């Protein structure tokens, strides 16, 4: 592959400047990597104000200028559509990284598309949400060839607290789906306990405070806002987050079905946690 990087590292292209993607892209530029960006809505690029980057008018122009292109977009369909455009201009040996959450089967399909053009592919979804992205402490779960993951590790380090290579193509997506499923099942357990406490006329806020101090503490518990402890899941965003979680749980179910595994009970429990999240936040913020 022709080296188009600079002394500061490979040229990184970025598509997807949403809630998590924007602080991730800014972190890449702040770490000194040459950053190139394209957005469907040009106004989205305003979020990169203050960091050095090169703006492109087409996906193909961005692809032609970059060694590594990161995607942080909503669905597998979006990823595959963008990949088709990127592959028109990416040089052999370039890398496409999907940071979104999706199906392992879609990761394999993306890898096959890349292989036909001599382009490497990684699935590298992230966990932690916008707060972790802004503080450069995301957990990045990587699937794909080990040497390719090593090439991209310093870029991942720019926005991550932890970078873990899980194995072959699709392993990063599987890990993310398991992560999300377990979070939602933990939420269901928390909702069960809070409902029991409310029925017994306990002070739910004080109970949550002490549970956070004891062996019952968990990330799921600590993500829940209370009047005394603001956190990521709050009354003003809980409906949105509940819907996103339900979609992620359906991805988990589809991935298990594609693998020939009956995980219906786990799916139901996870969906319970997702659907009950607004009521749980309501209990904690009367």
Q: What would the average pLDDT be, to the nearest integer?
A: 96
Radius of gyration: 20 Å
* Beta-strand residue fraction: 5-15%
Q: Helix- and strand-based class?
A: alpha/beta
Strand order in the sheet with the most strands: 3-2-1-4-5-6
Point out poorly predicted stretches. Answer: 1-7
Let me know the largest β-sheet.
6 strands, parallel
* Overall structural domain count: 2
Q: What separation lies between the terminal Cα atoms?
A: 59 Å
Q: What general outline do the C-alpha atoms trace?
A: globular
Task: Determine the oligomeric state from the structure.
Answer: single chain
If you had to describe this structure to a student in words, what would you say it looks like?
The chain is an alpha/beta fold and 286 residues long. It has 2 domains: 12-168, Rossmann fold (3-Layer(aba) Sandwich), CATH 3.40.50; 175-284, N-(1-d-carboxylethyl)-l-norvaline Dehydrogenase, domain 2 (Orthogonal Bundle), CATH 1.10.1040.10. 50% of the residues lie in helices and 13% in strands. The chain contains 12 helices and 9 strands. The protein has helices at residues 21-30, 59-65, 76-86, 104-116, 129-134, 146-157, 171-199, 204-213, 219-222, 238-258, 264-275, 277-284; strands at 12-15, 35-38, 54-55, 68-71, 95-98, 120-123, 126-127, 138-143, 160-167. The strands form 2 sheets. It has a 6-stranded parallel beta sheet, with helices on both faces. α1 (21-30) links the parallel β1 (12-15) and β2. α7 crosses α10. Mean pLDDT is 96; it is low at 1-7.
